[in-house]
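Sequence in, structure out.
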Amino acid sequence: MGKRTLLVVGWSMAMLAAACTNRPSASPSPALEDGRHFGYIRSAQLTAQPQVIVFDLAYLLSGDEANQAAADRGQETPVPNDYFIVNDNPRLRELPAAPGLRILLIDWTNCCDATFRADPRLFQESFDQKKYPPGNYKGKFSGYWLTVRGGAVTKVEEQYFP
């Protein structure tokens, strides 16, 4: 056998060995990278395992960025109250809740700077409401900021809108 044949046979065997190697695949990327993200919570399962929040990522823009995004979409400019929400992607993300999840909601009875630490059961139940509710638990009728660490939600903060 010539050197060329040995080289081809050797390369072929190496490719076959690589294809047959049972290597673990790269772990899937998290639904959201670590950081703080605005959007809408569509549901929350916090009273049983696994604890999961279904989140619709959006972008809360202000100032020139808000006006430009509104103009790009044929909406009123300048934008009312100096903010505009972009929610062009229909993807819902299922995010695990971290142990010790903190949920901070606006105390609507003492509007609007005061917040309180929410009861996970009441927070979960608020997403079943069909119309805008009275009281402090607004569920899907509010926007939220989620803090994500290590792929899990560590904090939920309700966003005030005028």
